[in-house]
């Protein structure tokens, strides 16, 4: 079974499980997430591989991290994630990429990400649920953080935090690759 097949199967199993745990009908989850009922059915039946945006919307609507939605197997108090086990969510031919390094559900979902953005590339995000906070640290290059339409230059060594309940984006307007680490804290579902 390929990595993509495993990811599709895991997502199908976990989406159905978490929807059941939250007591959400297909229609309720569709309304909360903005993802169509038909798409949710296809995902739960492992008949489609949804976009990163769709996966984020479903995780946000369920009040869980993407890491939990993709792989529910929780280990002991200490959980090590080898580099080859990090989940590559997207990549481009030019070399931009992001990887979910590790996540937890303690006190609400918390995720740690590794990003690489090649010159001229970027990634935009829809608003997350109220109370979601992102923390960023640029380790190489100069990234432009755009929060609710305002651009903030972030040269290497710069850190930032912001409420992520507004549209936001990460861009590399420079000539060198950008390397960044990001943590995302999502409030627990109510």
Per DSSP, the total helix count is 5
The average pLDDT value, as a whole number, equals 85
User: How far apart, in Å, are the first and last alpha carbons?
Assistant: 37 Å
| Total count of strands | 10
* Element pattern in H and E: HHHHHEEEEEEEEEE
- Secondary-structure-based class equals alpha+beta
Biggest sheet descriptor: 6 strands, antiparallel
Shape: globular
Oligomerization status of the protein chains = single chain
Q: Assess the beta-strand content as a share of residues.
A: 25-35%
Radius of gyration: 17 Å
Uncertain segments are 74-78
Describe the strand arrangement of the main beta sheet, using strand numbers.
1-2-3-10-5-8
- Please give the share of residues in helix: 25-40%
Topology readout:
Blueprint: H1 3-22, H2 26-33, H3 37-44, H4 52-62, H5 66-70, E1 87-91, E2 97-104, E3 110-117, E4 122-125, E5 133-140, E6 142-147, E7 150-155, E8 159-163, E9 168-171, E10 178-185
Antiparallel strand pairs: 1-2, 2-3, 3-10, 4-9, 5-8, 5-10, 6-7, 6-9
């Amino acid at each position: 079974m390929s990595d993509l097949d495993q990811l599709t199967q895991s997502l199908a199993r976990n989406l159905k499980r978490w929807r059941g745990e939250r007591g959400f009908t297909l229609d309720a989850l569709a309304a909360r997430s903005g993802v169509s009922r038909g798409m949710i059915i296809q995902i739960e039946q492992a008949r489609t591989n949804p976009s990163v945006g769709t996966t984020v919307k479903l995780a946000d609507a369920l009040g869980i991290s993407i890491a939990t939605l993709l792989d529910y197997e929780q280990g002991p108090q200490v959980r090590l994630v080898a580099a080859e086990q990090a989940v590559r969510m997207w990549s481009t031919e030019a070399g931009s990429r992001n990887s979910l390094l590790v996540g937890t559900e303690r006190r609400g979902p918390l995720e740690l990400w590794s990003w690489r953005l090649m010159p001229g590339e970027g990634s935009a995000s829809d608003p997350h649920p109220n109370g979601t906070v992102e923390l960023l640290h640029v380790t190489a290059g100069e990234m432009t953080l755009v929060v609710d339409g305002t651009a903030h230059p972030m040269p290497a060594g710069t850190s930032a935090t912001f409420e992520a309940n507004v549209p936001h984006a990460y861009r590399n307007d420079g000539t060198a690759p950008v390397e960044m680490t990001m943590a995302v804290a999502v409030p627990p579902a109510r």
